[in-house]
Amino acid sequence: MWTYQAPVADMLHLLTRVLDAPASWAAQPAFADLDSDTAAEVLAQAGRFAGEVLAPTNAPGDQHGCTWTPAGVATPPGFRAAYQAFVDGGWPALACSPVAGGQGLPQVLNMALFEMLAAANHGWTMYPGLLHGACEVLLHHGSPALQALYLDKLVSGQWLGTMCLTEPQAGSDLGLVRTQATPLAGDAANGAPLRISGSKIFISGGDHDLTDNIVHLVLCRLAGAPPGTKGLSLALVPKIRPDGQRNAVFCDGIEHKMGIHGSATCQMRFDGADGWLIGEPHRGLAAMFLMMNAARLHVAMQGVGHLEAATQNAWRYAQQRLQMRAVARPSGAAGPQGPDPIAWHPAMRRILLTLQARTDGCRAIAYWCALLLDEAEHHPDATRRAAAAGHVALLTPVAKSLFTELGHRSADEALQVWGGYGFVRDYGIEQTVRDSRIAMIYEGTNEIQAVDLVQRKLLDDGGARARALMAMLAAEVAACRAVPALQPFADALAQQLAQWDQALVVLQAGRATDAEHPLRVADDVLAGVGHALLAWAWARIARVASLDEQPAVPGARPAAQWLQSATFGLQWLLPQAQVHWQRATQSGLVLPFLAA
Prior knowledge:
Blueprint: H1 8-18, H2 21-26, H3 36-54, H4 58-64, E1 67-69, E2 72-74, H5 79-88, H6 107-120, H7 122-125, H8 131-141, H9 144-156, E3 160-164, E4 180-183, E5 193-204, E6 214-222, E7 232-238, E8 249-254, E9 265-278, H10 284-320, H11 346-378, H12 382-418, H13 429-437, H14 446-459, H15 464-481, H16 487-513, H17 517-520, H18 522-547, H19 559-573, H20 577-584
Parallel strand pairs: 3-6, 4-6
Antiparallel strand pairs: 1-2, 4-5, 5-9, 6-7, 7-9, 8-9
Helix pairs in contact: 1-3, 1-11, 3-6, 6-10, 6-11, 8-9, 8-10, 10-11, 10-12, 11-12, 11-18, 11-19, 12-13, 12-14, 12-15, 12-18, 14-18, 15-16, 15-18, 16-18, 18-19, 18-20
């Protein structure tokens, strides 16, 4: 009943026509040899893996779940074979640096790959989801000895990695982490051996049977370290030690969760385990941020994946399900009236078009963010690199929060298309509703993303990064004004940018007299910025569609359908931004404390 077919042609349309990725690649020596045909082949092969190998394991994996015994965790049937096919295909190394043995392809292709994987099987995707971030941490902060032992195994996917942050008493407050690290000899320097003792919870892939070894990156605290996050260090702790013996790393149980049952979410115990320091003492959080930021973008793509899976399945079902007589029929419809496809009824059309407009808008923003990520690392112009890095820093919390909220909300709304059938297991949408909910929580809850956006990305630099990004977005206003039919898109985007700028002024003034003010409206500010980005995406999609009578990419939707989706977003979805901007720019909003 539930299927997934990667929308490769639509992905390529956004990449090559809407975002002009080939021009970006041509300007970067690392990608100068990459062209649209090569990108198309990479995505086509990724789509085949996601649709033909991975998607069939989704529902069975959810129903079977993971199995824990004291000896370890067994993943659902079919997961190990799918992972071996993933490794054999070279997919873990896709965007890793050639210096580390990777293929050196752009992050934007890796982001598209992980959108497909999450859409096909979110639970399975949790296992390789942290690999790229782990490789980046080890490449940039690990000692040469640790790199020699572990880097190529992680890049190839022969071994998997984890990110061990959370502890029972700490939750999101990493300053409360208590896991202890004891140096075995002399001062703790990069690569120094340690003994690691402590417990971690909610560790995705903390134990499994997909690889023979698991490399844990563990936040810990050296004796005498400063309190809070300034005293955290980072250690590499393998499940299997370099001598081939089992390390003192134990999975004491797995969580019984609402969704992603195929992902082993583990309670981990480090009982005097052998580990090695990564980077400088007490600088572990700075090193770990490489992995955390990669993880946040990975989670953002989970939201896009859920959007796509819900959209294509809801559209297909609504066109096949016959119910009642439609008040109006589409042009050219033949045959007797009633029962008609539910896709013809206004209530269903509204849901289906909402799903498509959100999917198009979020995917365009996501791929643009990934292109900027590539430019921040590889562009030959230092000024361009710095500007791109500033844009990515601001976009990351918005992408993580906006895409995951819309991914879950849209799956929930899509369930309505099936009616009562959607509430039972047979049709698949209920699993997507359950699976998508976690993405709003982990890797920093969406509320934490909003606080990060407001305090660190919008206010701490006086709004400089925000206004630089707004200036970049404003170029689309000018481009749309040159096409008379696109005047509504230009006006809407200009209005969103003006309201964003006004919100910055109010936030700065509010914080000067009331330190809590920005935090009370942080969720609305993030939602407002998200809508401004959607306005930009829909405007850009519409402008390209207005210039194309035929799709530039074979198999992609016709230009008229892209324009229809963008116009629907503009007319039906963008007005919701006003609710958020009104609260974000209103002074004196009261948020009472709850009575004891």
